[in-house]
From TrEMBL:
Keywords: Aminoacyl-tRNA synthetase, ATP-binding, Cytoplasm, Ligase, Magnesium, Metal-binding, Nucleotide-binding, Protein biosynthesis. Residues 185-501 form the Aminoacyl-transfer RNA synthetases class-II family profile domain. Its EC number is 6.1.1.6. Its cofactor is Mg(2+). Binds 3 Mg(2+) ions per subunit. It catalyses: tRNA(Lys) + L-lysine + ATP = L-lysyl-tRNA(Lys) + AMP + diphosphate. It is an enzyme of class 6 (ligase). It comes from the Bacteria. This is Lysine--tRNA ligase. It is found in: Cytoplasm. One of its GO terms (biological process) is lysyl-tRNA aminoacylation. InterPro entries: Aa-tRNA-synt_II, aa-tRNA-synth_II, aa-tRNA-synth_II/BPL/LPL, Lys-tRNA-ligase_II, Lys-tRNA-ligase_II_N, Lys-tRNA-synth_II_C, NA-bd_OB-fold, NA-bd_OB_tRNA. Belongs to the class-II aminoacyl-tRNA synthetase family.
Length: 503
């Protein structure tokens, strides 16, 4: 039975054709989206089982395969198509040729294929496994069925998709580019490796609240929201730290969380408003034991994802093996500037240095903030090999322990690889009196208008007053780690990054 489908002016010509085919198929009593279709083998399994066939060799082995049509060539009595499997941790979307001949499927089935099937459709094909005359492993169909009708055309697979299209239509990107699928698989391998390493070391994986009454654990501007059930304002978390430490107070010996973090800040090639962090805390540890942990995590992740610890980057070759250097902030900055820089260096002199080196700064910044800005601009970009930048001024980390040998410093490090911060760690502050002083100072900054300052968290302080063991803690940016291993920007490493809406 034929019918004239309604024309939708909002559709492109190709989309209208596909809508018409769907409508006609249903009108003829067929199914455009059946619940199940025959499938005995994946494309990868066919390659594994029959990849040895020589050109022109045929078998009597019958299989049913299914996948998305990514190539199609219809001729008179013989039609060719390439179907693409879904991708998994071990497979990147294997392709397999299917052939439909008049002699095998009959005239009605062959004409239906030509009339109904478009690029992007999912199909199931049943037939014998053969190797074509050109040596292409194929399934010579005896039957086929449409599994899902695609109402939008695929991107042109042999043309490079623009970055904006790739990130806005990641589903199309994943179909079109093996590199996009490989990124998803690599990230999964890295995440799996991180969990396996921590599990082997006795760490408990926890889940902590995303919605929080008080934002803390980092210097960052939060996203604000409102909980209607309690009629209270809340924020999305900016760090994982404070609740994980509560668990340590309760007796957990080693804990970690891999979780989404939300910071209402700038978005660029290395920053996203939402990103993924690993935070881990180790009782009876300090900044040195936790540094060994992050080193092991990154090395194992490189092994799992790349099979090597030597990475080629735009900044040069990076070797993740061997010893990772430690560089204290003040002496390293002094060596860069060629003059003595200490915690006693006045802010006035640091402003002069910043001006001379064209480093932007706020005249209201104290000396410690100026030190961090100078170091970040003048030294960090040149730290290509893995380097623990340590002995920071206290302003850097309000949650870190005072240095064991210098009261002007804290026991904290940033891990710089390829000129970019990848992670941070410190000997955790567990003295509730000093912690209160620092959080009060932060809250005063917040009251004065500093949108990145932490708030006073009385519940967290109450937990610390129960007593916490000495501990080391680390934070590792999962997206930054993937960027290091792949050389990609953050929008490529995040599967569905936050984007500015199109007008």
């Amino acid at each position: 039975m034929n019918q004239t489908p309604a024309v939708n002016p909002s559709l492109t010509e190709q989309e209208q054709v596909r809508h018409d085919k769907r409508a006609q198929l249903i009108a003829d009593g067929g199914e455009a989206y059946p619940i199940t279709v025959p499938r005995t083998h994946s494309a990868a399994a066919v390659h594994a089982g029959w990849g040895h066939l020589t050109a022109g060799e045929e078998t009597t082995d019958v299989v049913s395969v299914s996948g998305r049509v990514v190539f199609i060539r219809n001729t008179g009595k013989l039609c060719f198509a390439t179907i693409q499997d879904g991708f998994t941790l071990d497979e990147s979307g294997t392709r397999l040729q299917v052939m439909l001949s008049l002699a095998e499927v009959g005239e009605e089935s062959l004409e239906a294929w030509k009339a109904q099937i478009d690029l992007g459709d999912f199909v199931s094909v049943t037939g014998r496994v053969i190797s074509s005359k050109r040596g292409e492993l194929s399934v010579l169909a005896t039957d086929w069925v449409l599994a899902s009708k695609a109402l939008r055309p695929l991107p042109t697979l042999h043309k490079e998709l623009g970055e904006e299209t790739r990130v806005r239509q990641r589903y199309a990107d994943l179909v079109a580019r093996p590199e996009a699928r490989d990124m998803v698989r690599l990230r999964a391998a890295v995440t799996r490796s991180i969990r396996e390493t921590l599990y082997a070391d006795g760490y408990l994986e926890l889940e902590t609240p995303v919605l929080q009454l008080i934002h803390g654990g980092a210097a960052a501007r939060p996203f604000n929201t409102h909980l209607n059930a309690f009629d209270i304002d809340m924020t999305l978390r900016i760090a994982l730290e404070l609740y994980l430490k509560r668990a340590m107070v309760g007796g957990a010996d080693r804990v970690y969380e891999i979780g989404r973090i939300f910071r209402n800040e700038g978005i660029d090639s290395s920053h996203s408003a939402e990103f993924t962090m690993l935070e881990a805390y180790q009782a009876w540890g300090d900044q040195f034991s936790i540094a060994e942990l992050i080193k092991k995590l990154i090395q194992n992740a490189a092994d799992a994802a790349l099979g090597t610890r030597v990475i080629q980057t735009e900044a040069g070759e990076i070797n993740l093996d061997g010893d990772w250097e430690w560089k204290p902030v003040y002496p390293t900055l002094a060596a860069k500037l060629g003059e003595d820089i200490t915690p006693e260096t006045p802010a006035e002199r640091l402003r002069e240095i910043a001006t001379a080196h064209e480093v932007p700064f706020d005249p209201a910044w104290p000396a410690q903030k100026l030190i961090m800005e100078l170091f970040g601009e003048l030294v960090e970009p040149d730290l290509i090999q893995p380097t623990f930048v340590c002995d920071y001024p206290p302003i850097a980390q309000p949650l870190a322990r005072p240095h064991r040998s210098d009261p002007n410093l804290i026991e904290a490090w940033d891990l710089i690889i390829g000129g970019v911060e990848r992670g941070t760690g410190f000997s955790e502050l567990i003295d509730p009196v000093i912690q209160r002083e620092r959080l009060v100072a932060q809250s005063l900054k917040a009251a004065a208008g500093d949108v990145e300052a932490m708030q006073l968290d009385e519940d967290f302080l109450a937990a610390l007053e129960f007593g916490a063991p000495p501990m080391g803690g680390l934070g590792l940016g999962m997206d930054r780690l993937i960027m290091l291993l792949t050389g990609a920007g953050i929008r490529e490493t995040i599967l569905f990054p936050l984007l500015k809406p199109q007008s």
